[in-house]
Write a structure and sequence with these properties.
The chain has two domains: about 120 residues, NAD(P)-binding Rossmann-like Domain (Rossmann fold, 3-Layer(aba) Sandwich); about 160 residues, Dihydrodipicolinate Reductase, domain 2. The chain contains 14 helices and 14 strands. The strands form two sheets. An eight-stranded mixed β-sheet has the order 13-12-11-7-10-9-8-14. Strands 3-2-1-4-5-6 form a six-stranded parallel β-sheet, sandwiched between helices. The chain starts with 9 loop residues before the first strand and ends in a 21-residue tail after the last helix.
């Protein structure tokens, strides 16, 4: 497929019609459809009754259970994946082969090997179809403003950082069979819950150089962890901590970055507005400078809509989207390194995990006590 003509709407197909599709993706798509940027042309789900109900409710003209058939018949420009992570690789590769861009819900896929296979299915040009990840916290006006301050050096050198995703999930949450399993949920809170805050931290502070991690199962009887912590060294020399938990009754998502001239802090839960950011200057910073730092401009909350609008603009302009390729891989690599460090007890450096490393193909790395138990063989009593 050639680069999309910017004056025509993107023909879009939704794959997976469950909760996240209905609560976040379809409202965002409908908004851009009203603006003439996209047309929701198809919906696909393995559950025929679910996809028919979704198509009827949202007025989607094509509904099917077969992804390949939809790709051949509808030929969408953009495929939005709202399915479990275990099938993201297969579905993304199919969409890319069909000439469509892909916007994939988190977790992106269960391993770096899967991510690299998806990237290998791309043709490689910025104007050619590529796969991007749903990392919507990068796209609010608050993150955009703070990113500019940090990258311009206005706040001085970053020194110390903290990233916290401390949420609460009870036993009923894990009673759903696919949760808490490596193959189907894609990981524990480091992967499935804290990934958005981790991604935002990495986006704000730039490349990381090494990580030292710890993980535990303290409450829930699951394959994955239910809490993790990590120490990070960034390439710019800053040091940071990351805490991910599903054991915390007082739920909060938080990022704090101490720079030479100011502290920046974001406190929220599932999404932020400008008012959720706070900038505290160091002594001696002129008031007019502080006032400029605190002027975030028009409030654009972090949301699927904010990212989708940016993605569609990038596709139409023939640009690489920020969460595609290397821009999305860095977060998955960091989380993989956190698990490897936690399960081996050794620090992990950026770029260390590649083909031949057991953590390249599975986040648990086959580690004793963490890898899924092998299926038991029936004993022959004959």
């Amino acid at each position: 497929m050639s680069p999309h003509r910017s004056n025509t709407p993107l023909r879009t197909a939704l794959v997976g019609t469950g909760g996240i599709a209905r609560s976040s993706h379809l409202p965002a798509l409908r908004t851009l459809e009203a603006e003439g940027e996209v047309v929701v042309a198809a919906a696909v789900d393995v559950d025929e009754s679910a996809v028919r109900a979704c198509a009827d409710e949202f007025g989607i003209p094509y509904a099917a259970t077969d992804l390949d058939a939809m790709l051949a018949e509808v030929r969408p420009d953009l495929v939005v994946l709202c399915t479990p992570p275990a099938v993201h690789r297969q579905q993304a590769e199919a969409a890319l082969r069909g000439g469509a861009w892909v916007w994939c819900e988190k977790p992106p896929c269960p391993s770096l090997a899967d991510f690299d296979a998806i990237e290998a299915a791309e043709k490689g040009g910025d104007a050619d179809p590529y796969a991007a990840i749903v990392f919507q916290h990068r796209f609010g006006s608050g993150a955009r403003h703070v990113r500019g301050l940090l990258r311009s050096g206005a706040l001085g050198r970053p020194l110390v950082a903290h990233c916290q995703t401390t949420w609460y999930r009870d036993s009923a949450y894990y009673a759903v069979p696919w949760r808490g399993r490596w193959a189907t949920e894609g990981g524990g809170p480091a992967m499935g819950h804290g990934i958005h805050q981790t991604d935002l931290l990495l986006d704000l502070l730039g490349p990381w150089s090494d990580v030292r991690g710890m993980a535990a199962r303290l409450v829930h009887d699951v394959e994955t962890e239910d809490v993790s912590t990590a120490q990070i060294r960034f390439a710019n020399g800053a040091l940071g901590t990351v805490v991910n938990s599903v054991l915390s009754p007082d739920e909060v998502s938080r990022i704090r970055i101490d720079c030479a001239h100011a502290t920046v802090e974001l406190t929220h839960l599932y999404g932020y507005r400008n008012a959720d950011w706070r900038i505290t200057p160091a002594p001696g910073v002129p008031e007019e400078t502080v006032a400029a730092w605190r002027d975030f401009g028009t409030d654009e909350p972090s949301s699927h809509l904010a990212q989708l609008r940016a993605l569609v603009a990038d596709i139409k302009a023939g640009r690489r989207h920020a969460t595609s390729g290397a821009g999305g891989r860095q977060t998955l690599e960091f989380i993989t390194a956190l698990y490897k460090s936690a399960f081996t007890g050794a620090p992990v450096r950026a770029g260390e995990i590649g083909p031949g490393d057991p953590y390249y193909t599975a986040l648990h790395g086959g580690a004793p006590g963490w890898a899924p138990a092998a299926p038991r063989k029936e004993e022959d009593h004959a």
